[in-house]
C-alpha cells in the first residue's frame, strides 16, 4: 500500500515541477510549459485576442501580455492591433511558432496513443479501479490546493 501512495506522491511532485521545465519543440529556443499552452491556444484558433486568452485560461490580461511578449522576443508570436478596436491586441503565431505548435500537437497525439494502448491491454475491472483511483487522486489534489 505504501508503495502505491509513494509513487502517487512522486508523480504529483513531478507534475508540479514541470512548470520549471522547458523544451524546444522543434525550434531553436527554450519554451516553457506556460508558453507552449498559450501557443497551443493560438494555434488551435489561428489568431486570438489577448483578452480572450486571459478569459479562456483564467488569468489576467497582464499575465497573458507578459507571456506573449516573451513569445514575441523568441520569434514565436506576433501582436497586431485590432483594426476595428485599436485598444485590443490580436496575437498570431509566426512560422517558428507554428513549428512549436505542430511539434506539441504531435507529442500529445503520440502520448495519448501510448496511453490508449496501455488502457486497451487492461480488463474492464482494472480500468474501473484505475478510473476510481484517478478520481480519488483528483479530489485529493483539489482539497490540497
UniProtKB/TrEMBL annotation:
GO terms for molecular function: DNA binding; DNA-binding transcription factor activity. InterPro entries: ArsR-like_HTH, HTH_MarR-typ, WH-like_DNA-bd_sf, WH_DNA-bd_sf. Keywords: DNA-binding, Transcription, Transcription regulation. SMART domains: HTH_MARR (SM00347). Residues 1-139 form the HTH marR-type domain. This is Regulatory protein MarR.
Amino acid at each position: 500500500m505504501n508503495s502505491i501512495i509513494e509513487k502517487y506522491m512522486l508523480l504529483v511532485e513531478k507534475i508540479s515541477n514541470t512548470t520549471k521545465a522547458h523544451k524546444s519543440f522543434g525550434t531553436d529556443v527554450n519554451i516553457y510549459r506556460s508558453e507552449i499552452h498559450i501557443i497551443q491556444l493560438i494555434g488551435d484558433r489561428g489568431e486570438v485576442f489577448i483578452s480572450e486568452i486571459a478569459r479562456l485560461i483564467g488569468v489576467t490580461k497582464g499575465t497573458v501580455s507578459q507571456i506573449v511578449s516573451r513569445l514575441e522576443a523568441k520569434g514565436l508570436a506576433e501582436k497586431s492591433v485590432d483594426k476595428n478596436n485599436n485598444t485590443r491586441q490580436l496575437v498570431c503565431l509566426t512560422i517558428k511558432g507554428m513549428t512549436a505548435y505542430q511539434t506539441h500537437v504531435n507529442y500529445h497525439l503520440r502520448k495519448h496513443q501510448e496511453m490508449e494502448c496501455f488502457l486497451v491491454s487492461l480488463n474492464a475491472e482494472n480500468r474501473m479501479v484505475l478510473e476510481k483511483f484517478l478520481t480519488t487522486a483528483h479530489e485529493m489534489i483539489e482539497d490540497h490546493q
